UniProtKB/TrEMBL annotation:
GO terms for molecular function: DNA-binding transcription factor activity; transcription cis-regulatory region binding. This is Transcriptional regulator. It comes from Salipiger profundus. Keywords: DNA-binding, Transcription, Transcription regulation. Pfam families: TetR_C_27, TetR_N. InterPro entries: Homeodomain-like_sf (IPR009057), HTH-type_TetR-like_transc_reg (IPR050109), HTH_TetR (IPR001647), TetR_C_27 (IPR041478). It comes from the Bacteria. PANTHER family: HTH-TYPE TRANSCRIPTIONAL REGULATOR RUTR, TRANSCRIPTIONAL REGULATORY PROTEIN. The lineage of its organism: Bacteria, Pseudomonadati, Pseudomonadota, Alphaproteobacteria, Rhodobacterales. Residues 9-69 form the HTH tetR-type domain.
Length: 193
């Protein structure tokens, strides 16, 4: 089969885009490397130069899906305002991203959920970044460090774990998340006084 004429990075990007489109059209479980290769105009074997297996391609899909989330949480971390307010905004944004995506992009979200359950490296890296962001905000707010950030994240799992996200943003659920974040932050603040 012919070469694509794309650089290795561009070929990876194109394969990822095709995989995303195929997942949306046919479902996460029906993605096949052979179909992606055919649509790219390369052999199945040629695609292995870019992705060692289907799991690696799915990791690339998940990573591309998470890129927007990383930008959105980073903007909050780097933004103006008191760190305590940005902690609340950071958790609310994570909830909005996931609850919005489960409704607007259910097959890709299903893949993200599967990657989370399988503890894929792309998810571990993403979680490490989130931990670093939250730790930075907690430190900036003077509420502790990594241990307190981990406690906050664990306490809010019911709002953020992919398996527990309800379809679409729920204003009542978001309000409950805000209340719980405020209670937890008040508790951390009280222990620092």
């Amino acid at each position: 089969m012919p070469r694509t004429g794309l650089s290795p990075e561009a070929a990876r990007q194109r394969a990822t885009e095709i995989a995303v489109a195929r997942i949306r059209e046919h479902g996460f479980s029906k993605l096949r490397l052979a179909d992606v290769a055919r649509e790219m105009g390369v052999s199945h074997a040629a695609l292995y130069a870019h992705f060692r297996d289907k799991a690696a391609l799915l990791d690339a899909v998940t990573d591309s899906w998470l890129a927007d989330a990383r930008q959105r949480t980073a903007r909050i971390c780097e933004g103006p305002g008191p760190a305590v307010e940005r902690i609340e905004a950071w958790f609310v944004e994570r909830y909005r991203i996931k609850s919005g995506r489960v409704k607007s992009d259910p097959e890709i979200f299903y893949g993200f959920n599967e990657a989370t359950a399988g503890e894929r490296p792309v998810i571990r890296d993403h979680m490490a970044l989130l931990c670093s962001e939250l730790t930075g905000l907690v430190e900036e707010a003077g509420l502790g460090g990594r241990a307190e950030a981990a406690m906050l994240d664990e306490a809010l799992t019911a709002f953020l774990h992919p398996s527990l996200i309800a379809p679409g943003p729920d204003p009542d659920r978001e309000a409950a998340l805000r209340r719980l974040v405020r209670v937890l932050l008040a508790g951390l603040s009280a222990t620092r006084s």
